[in-house]
Specification:
- Pfam families: Sugar_tr.
- By secondary structure, this protein is mostly helical.
- The protein has a domain of 199 residues: Growth Hormone, Chain: A.
- 76% of the residues lie in helices and 0% in strands.
- It is elongated.
- Helix 5 crosses helix 13, helix 8 packs parallel to helix 10 and helix 9 packs across helix 12.
Length: 289
């Protein structure tokens, strides 16, 4: 950590432009022309300062800031309501309930290793495929596997013979974890740093992180009660249904940020609000002759 410089935006916010230039040069390479990017950062900071209020919490409620904040909160919500932490924390119990032909402790190890490997694969694919494509893939994979797991447990609870597909829970868990790790695992955290405006990024990120951990607590705390109430099949179908809603949310509201600078993203998201407010202020033309 001692070798890593502060971010260029932090230096610009402290009027230390030369240090910001050196930080950019360190990040982009010695031969890179960092002046255009530095000018963009400075311009973005000046605009943020001009529109900022004295209260960081009041800034969060501004129309121009509310949309990116709500998108971040939405991504965090659907990340945790996919049931990922319930799956991770209750893996052994779930495999015991499934009566899997494979040892439940071995299954837990396999799921953990797959999660670890898939996260590294995601770092390679995020900038190649784009954020939204990976979120689509992630969501579809989770929907299919959660619905499959729900159907498996429903058949088992109804007394159907599922011994010939005893491998299915492990296969579904592996695909579910891979799907989550490729998209909804890392991307909500990544996009939080991309779409939140610079002036509120710190306070908004704190709110989004607290919201994420609150959702984690609720899901893990209530999972046992949910399964006791509606069964394992009902719990997995519920998580799968939430993932369907999450897919609609991504399609409609989440922007693609691949290949765009933070300044471009902020300008585009805030620009829409300004244009709409400008339209609202247009007075109707008079047709009196």
């Amino acid at each position: 950590m001692f070798l890593i410089p502060e971010t260029p935006r932090w230096y610009v916010s402290r009027n230390r432009e030369e240090r910001a230039r050196k930080a950019l040069q360190w990040l982009r390479g010695r031969k890179a022309d960092v002046e255009p990017e530095l000018k963009g950062i400075s311009k973005s900071h000046q605009e943020a300062e001009r529109h900022a209020s004295k209260s960081a919490m009041l800034d969060l409620l501004k129309k121009s800031n509310l949309k990116p904040l709500l998108i971040s909160l939405g991504l965090m919500f659907f990340q945790q309501l996919s049931g990922i932490n319930a799956v991770i924390f209750y893996t052994v119990q779930i495999f015991q309930s499934a009566g899997s032909t494979i040892d439940e402790k071995l299954c837990t190890i396999i799921v953990g290793v797959v999660n670890f490997i898939a996260t590294f694969i995601a770092t390679i694919l995020i900038d190649r495929l784009g954020r939204k494509i990976l979120l689509y893939i992630s969501d579809v994979a989770m929907i299919i596997t959660l619905m499959t797991l729900g159907t498996f447990f429903y058949m088992k609870n109804n007394g159907d013979d599922v011994s010939h597909i005893g491998w299915l829970p492990l296969a579904a868990f592996v695909v579910f974890v891979v799907g989550f790790s490729l998209g909804f695992g890392p991307i909500p955290w990544l996009m939080m740093g991309e779409i939140l405006p610079g002036k509120i990024r710190g306070s908004a990120a704190s709110v989004a992180t607290a919201f994420n951990w609150s959702c984690t607590f609720v899901v893990t705390k209530t999972f046992a009660d949910i399964t006791a109430s509606i069964g394992n099949h009902g719990a997995f179908w519920m998580f799968g249904s939430i993932c369907v809603i999450g897919l609609m949310f991504v399609i409609v509201y989440v922007p693609e940020t691949q290949g765009k600078s933070l300044e471009d993203i902020e300008r585009k998201m805030m620009g829409r609000v300004r244009r709409m407010s400008s339209v609202a202020n247009i007075k109707p033309l008079s047709f009196n002759m």
